[in-house]
Specification:
The complex is a heterotrimer of chains A (about 260), B (about 270) and C (about 240). Chain A contains 6 helices and 10 strands; from the N terminus they run βαβαββαββαββββαα. Chain A is of the alpha/beta class. In chain A, helix 4 runs antiparallel to helix 5. Chain B has 8 helices and 10 strands. A 6-stranded mixed beta sheet of chain B has the order 3-4-5-8-6-7. In chain B, strands 2-1-9-10 form a 4-stranded mixed beta sheet. The chains are: A alpha/beta (about 260), B alpha/beta (about 270), C alpha/beta (about 240).
Chain lengths: ~260, ~270, ~240
Amino acid sequence: MTRVLLISGPPGCGKTSWILNQLQAHRGPCGYLRLEGFTAAELQQAPDGGIDRAFLVDQCPGLLDLAEPGENPASRPQDLLALIELPQWQAPPEAGLAGIDPRLLPPLEALQLLPQRHLSFGRDAELPAQDTLQFNALEAWSLDLTHSVWDPPSLNSFWFELVNGAYGEVYRAKALMNLPDGRSFFFNWIVSQEGTQFLPLERVAPPVGRPQRMSRLVVQGKHLDAAGIEATIADGLLSDAVLELQQAPQRPFGAPLPATR
Amino acid sequence: MAHAVISCLHANLAATEAVLSDIEQLGIDRITCLGDLVGYGPQPNEVVELIRARQIPSCQGCWDEDIIEGLNSCECSYPSQLAERRGQRAHHWTAAQLSEENKAFLASLPLSLRRDRLLFVHGSPNSQHEYLLPDMNAFAALERVEAAQADTLFCGHTHRPYVRELREGVIKLRLHRAVANPGPDIEREVDLPVRRIVNAGSVGEPRHGGTSATYVIHHEQDDSVEIREVPYDVERTCQAIVAAGLPPLFAWRLRHGFEYAERADDASHVCER
Amino acid sequence: MARWALLSGLRGDLTVYAAVQAELRRQRVDTLFVLGDLIGPEREANALLERLQQPRRGDLQPHCLYGWWEEQLLAERGFRGERRADALRQSGGEAAVAALLQAVDPVHMAWLASLQFGFVELDCALLHGSSADVGDSLTADTAPLQLLDRLTRMEANRLFTARSGEQFCVELCGGGIESRLRDLEGERQQHQSVPSRKVIGVGSGLHYTLYDPGSDHIAFRRAGGPIHATGRGFA
């Protein structure tokens, strides 16, 4: 029988990390679903754009994507552990299942994923009480970086500037970024914690042209200078020619380029 | 007699004025400048004209060279593509702003200045682009001073002021020559001379964690060196950066005590050009 | 076990090269490095350049670097930007520049231009001059501080050099230096020891060097000479 657990909490409180721990500790099959949440007054939900899902799928091979359109509830394994992540600015008015936003119930019912339990960061003692910031007014901004590859030292400088306030007050920043050696890094930063979490994904792209997988930056904060961020990103991404120059030595000797094949 | 050494003004007029006024208040009238009068900052003409008006002997920095030679800066001296693009923007802006007369002045600057056994250079005696960082290999650092036949080498370029004394150096070696009748291997012990490197830091683009301008004073009487920190109106320069249309990031960095541009990772890199 | 032969200063002399190749066949050498100065103004170098590019059957495949003479030719032929053969012009005059141009058929220029400045093999740097310059002439009498600097720049434990034409080995085997640093954070003292490192001059022409990277054994040889007389090895 499928166990369905809904995890809610404000941005940056550690939902994804907690979920990763649960998934890795569970011996049977696992599924994951990320809900987009609702915009509260003055507080925009950050369009995650699939960063968390891509990260978890990379870290947990075989993870069932419960948002997949063709996913058939009937064919789910018997002992599936289904974890649903919900970004939510304010703590729910009531604990447990009664605290679930009623607007969520019809879509969850359609997916046959009505939660049996609901845990909320900042409310349930079972969850780590780390970063439940009090948010008042927040903007959210995101940029699709699919097919983009960074010059690594430029990425380093950009991230330093971003989280140190060069482009407005940033409270939360999260990203999946591609490097020329084929690696992709999950970047995770929140104002209340020291340092950024940088985690390399398990899957490495072959050194032939631009990677196809997801790459995205999501920023939440105040007075964000989107034009400034985009200008810096444009200066830090590699052109085709430079990318080729960096990838060529990584290919087995004599391997022809896709373009010249 | 005391003697002030300033470096890396980087077109920051407020910082240059504050440092010159500090030197004046200390009653010091001998000043040497180690170059990089321009680059990154918003007042290249004003700073060059101030140095010319005060008749301060200067050597040429890497930025001074690049502005007059066309964009000649070694690409490998930039730590990242981002820093390179920003540096190039600053270069084009500065080149367009500088008067022909001021360019001619920068072109006339020597690569080094020598006073007895004191040598003044921008980067290192090898190159305007070489960084003599405080933690550089001590033997390599000593070699730079020794090869230039100096007792004390004054340099800038790293934007971090320091005084480094190298002493009690000794190298033991075993020598084998292949000649027709090779004799026994020779063993020798070579004592190394005591030498000193003084980095004057930066007036206009400090990289010591704070926002103050830095320079050094050499007290010739007892051969001691003092590192000076001078607070100045950082906001005035930041506003001028934005008003000039230079990348606003330069103002942000300066305001927070980060440098305009980061240094290259390879400290001992020497441009081969 | 690997065994290298290192030579330099052929200056277009195919006879010398053939003599060395013949000798190497008998000495269980598996890798041949030619550290520059393949050409020179004294004689036409085309036959040698052809053999280096297309080894004869039985030849050890040579791995070549460019040396000071190649650098002069490449500069003069416009392969070094604005620079010309100024150093040669200064030391040997126009006649030497003309003789050098005469010695090499332009057909070889592309190959010469493709040669590298140095090789880094294991913890060894193989160069014509030094990390400072292709014309840096290191000898047994070079100041030890300078030798240590050249080793440090390459981050190598063994530096093989050819510019001086001498065969020598200087082993840095001890010593140290005190460094006192004062900055805005305060004062610190640091001691640095001399790392155990060697600079080896490989010789020129018939004089070449054998090196065994496994045992660090060096042997200086002269092609055509008695194999054991001048080749007294030492570790």
